[in-house]
Amino acid sequence: MVPDAPQFEGITPYLHYDDAAAMVDWLTRVFGFTERGRWLDTQGALRNAELFAGSTEIWLEGDAEYWNQKGRRPEEWIGVWVDDVDAMFARVAAAGITVEPPENKFYGIRVFQVTDPEGYTWGFMERCAYVARFEA
Q1: 71 partner at 20 to 30 Å CA-CA among 17, 62, 87, 124?
Q2: Tell me, what DSSP letter sits at residue 44?
Q3: Phi-psi category of 71—alpha, beta or left, where left has phi over 0 and alpha has psi -120 to 50?
Q4: CA–CA separation, 78 and 48 (whole Å)
Q5: Which residues fall within 8 angstroms of residue 67, CB to CB, at 6 or more apart?
Q6: Superfamily, domain 8-127
Q7: Neighbours of 11 (CB within 10 A)
Q8: Residue 124 and residue 82 in contact, taking contact as beta carbons nearer than 8 Å
Q9: How is the chain split into domains, by residue range?
């Protein structure tokens, strides 16, 4: 028997841009999205940002060199907010899918990921406590 699905609370697109800082400026100016936060690397370059489009979050990745080194475009990633990520994990596992269990990330998300048969990666997530992290 498959457990009931948790209450879904939205989907978060994760978009990859060569110049995330310019895209934050453009998306906020042109579409009227609002900025939630920016994360800079040790050299001060914008590497990640979060925007709001109403109550929907949009995440931006800004490390073009990462994908250039891999020799390809970024893979697609779809973030799905749930009220109970552990219940969602139990549902996926009960369906016979082998997947790593949820983990708390330093940036305040508890998440696990599943790649579907066509290659899309789905990240099921809920908020958890932020943890201070310093890059060396």
Answers
A1: 124
A2: S
A3: left
A4: 16
A5: 16, 73, 74
A6: 2,3-Dihydroxybiphenyl 1,2-Dioxygenase, domain 1 (3.10.180.10)
A7: 12
A8: yes
A9: 8-127
Sign of the C-alpha dihedral computed for residues 132, 13, 114 and 40 taken in this order: negative
Query: Each residue of 70-96: pLDDT tens digit?
Result: 887 777 788 888 899 999 899 899 889
Find tokens 């579907």 and name the residue.
Answer: 116
Residue of 47, 51, 43, 48 lying closest to 26 (CA atoms): 51
CB distance 46 to 38 below 8 Å: yes
**Residue carrying structure tokens 């983990």:** 103
pTM tops 0.70, yes or no: no
